[in-house]
Amino acid sequence: MQKPFLLRQAYGVPYTKDTTDDIILAGSMKASDPFDIGAGHINPLKAMDPGLVYDMKTHDYILYLCNIGYTQDQIQRMVILSPGTSTACPKGHKTNTNINYPSITVSSLQSTMTIKRTVRNVGHRKTAIYFARIVNPDGVEVVVWPRVLFYSCFKEEAFYFVTLKPVKISQGRYDFGEIVWSDGSHHVRSPLVVCVNTITTPPPPSATTLNAGGSVPHASV
Question: Where in this chain does the record put each Subtilisin-like protease fibronectin type-III domain (predicted)?
């Protein structure tokens, strides 16, 4: 289940070990990962003062609904629209990657890609400076620009870019990291979930493919 964009910032770091320091296991008895344990337990007090929020806009929700199969007519029935907002789905598939959601998931990273996120200052202080801390998923080089966000007023928005570069040969394995923005008192965490797919499977040989001897294989009779 997706967490509300504001409350997501009040989640603590999820634990992967129990009180006896043993690895927590998933239902299949494998070691648990973020797919099993989520983003952590919610802290209601921190939810009252999250510091930053990823404020999703109407067009983010419309794109998400389009991508899971809703029609324009269905979207118009369920979304309260401001004047001038279009519910038309984009022609062709447009990725969910840049939907302004706190977590970042890339299900098939084959080459370098850049993702944009926007965060709004809702802290008690009008002026604030947030610094980024990055934990790279295994086999992924992560670059965040800018590394420092400056806010001069309440509810001001700032954006940043995350560039993901695969640096390993892999296929079908998810790895996990995080980006944490902190002003010293708030710690705004975004999970990174990346599946590196840099192994290309060659197509099966066709009937006209030359064999090792250089001749065309004959059909059996």
Answer: 98-194
Please check whether residue 216 lies inside any domain of the structure.
Answer: no
**Residue-wise pLDDT tens digits, 40-61:** 677 788 888 899 999 988 889 8
* Angle (nearest 5°) at CA 139 between 142 and 111: 70
Range of the domain at 119: 7-56+100-196
pTM: 0.75
